[in-house]
Write a structure and sequence with these properties.
Number of helices: 12
Strand order of the largest sheet: 1-2
Shape: elongated
Radius of gyration: 44 Å
Strand content: under 5%
Distance between the termini: 74 Å
Number of strands: 2
Length: 330
């Protein structure tokens, strides 16, 4: 028996402590969490202050010898102190998750924390995620944002290209029409020249004798032939210009149609990429669709050599189709 203690005191000391109620424990846990969040930020602020007053070369020795922090750990505390303002959220998440969330723009963090996210095929809140899963969710968010920005840039480029092609098409269409009109004018002029009887035109003039008439007819024929050749040359060039202008016009029309189709495709992708779940759905859908096409091809080959086996494969594909229909209705 120990000296100085009564028997009752010794029995009380040896007896196990009575279990505490859950409300008391809960209150202490919450208080400690709040204290931990404040402590992390307070440590970070003091590290920032210490680094500012220490001379060059004293920072790392002070960290290692006086406060026993690695430079990496100190940088983490200081970054949290600079960029994180809510100690309650910080204590709820823990330092690792809070640091991961600093990768997001400050104005988006609260919204990201409030929403559920799909990670490895499962929907989870930030509280339910591990630090690795949170980093993965942020990475996927960044990829989705980058995809949306690229889609927006692609749409802008597509629209600008369409506008430019429209302007070029109008110009080329006008050139083609002008070339066509010139071709028609020259063709009509050449036709009239060929149909005009040179002899009659010369004989209508008053001439002194037959020799003069013959000379005038020859001269008129030579002039008409020269004019005809010149017109034919002009007509050939006009036709070539018309053909080239029409070819450029048609090429521009084809480019414009292709650009419009590309813009439609880009717009469709933009709609899907605007939502991470839709983007993931499209990725899986495209993969499944490709697999179904392969399965269908294999089924056709089996039908040619084994009708009985083909029936079993058909039943399997039909069962798969039923599952997909059930999923679409769910």
């Amino acid at each position: 028996m120990s000296e100085g203690f009564s028997l009752a005191e010794q029995i009380a000391a040896a007896a196990p402590a009575a279990p505490r109620d859950i409300e008391t424990i809960t209150a202490e846990v919450l208080e400690l969490k709040h204290t931990a969040g404040n402590a992390i930020l307070d440590i970070g602020r003091r590290l920032i202050e210490a680094k500012a007053v220490l001379d060059h070369g004293e920072w790392l020795p002070w960290l290692e010898e006086r406060v026993e922090f690695s430079e990496r750990t100190a940088n983490r505390f200081m970054r949290l102190a600079r960029e994180w303002t809510n100690p309650t959220t910080l204590s709820d998440l823990g330092a690792s998750k809070a640091l991961a969330l600093l990768a997001l723009p400050a104005g988006e963090r609260d919204g990201f924390i409030a929403e559920a996210h799909v990670v490895d095929g499962q929907e989870k809140t930030v509280d339910e995620m591990s630090a690795r899963e949170l980093q993965q969710a942020i990475k996927e968010r960044d990829e989705a944002v980058a995809a949306q920005e690229k889609m927006a840039a692609d749409m802008k480029f597509a629209n600008e290209r369409i506008e430019g092609l429209n302007a070029d098409l109008e110009s080329k269409a006008a050139e083609a029409e002008k070339a066509r009109s010139e071709t028609e004018r020259l063709a009509a002029e050449l036709k009239a020249l060929r149909e005009k009887p040179v002899e009659v035109a010369v004989q209508e003039k008053t001439v002194p004798d037959q020799a003069a008439i013959d000379a005038a007819v020859k001269k008129a024929k030579d002039e008409a032939e020269g004019k005809r050749k010149a017109l034919e040359d002009k007509l050939d060039k006009a036709k070539a210009a018309q053909t080239a202008a029409e070819a450029e016009r048609d090429s521009l029309r084809a480019q414009l149609d292709a650009a419009r189709e590309q813009a439609k495709t880009t717009a469709g992708r933009a709609v899907l990429s605007a939502d991470a779940e839709l983007a993931q759905f499209k990725l899986l859908f495209d993969s499944i669709q490709s697999d179904i096409n392969k399965l269908t091809g294999l089924l056709m080959k089996v039908r040619l050599r084994d009708a009985e086996a083909a029936k079993k494969l058909e039943a399997a594909l039909n069962a798969l189709a039923d599952k997909i229909r059930e999923g679409a209705k769910a």
